[in-house]
Amino acid sequence: MLEITLNGSPRSLETSISIATLVEELSMPERRLAVELNGIVVRKAEWPGTILNSGDRIEIVHFVGGG
User: Fold this and answer.
1) From CA 40, how far away is CA 49, in angstroms rounded?
2) What pLDDT was estimated at residue 67?
3) Measuring CA to CA, which residue among 11, 15, 16, 2 is closest to residue 60?
């Protein structure tokens, strides 16, 4: 069991997964998302190959248009 912090809240994962898989499991639309892993922004092209480890801090921000 892996323990990560997702948007400031603890979260348990059964196994190591990629950022892309996490976003999919959270049912978040990939468009207009920004992901930060341990304080570093991860480009969308790198999500499938970026595997999460126990202790990682992930921030996922969804951009919303407005005026």
Assistant:
1) 15
2) 63
3) 11
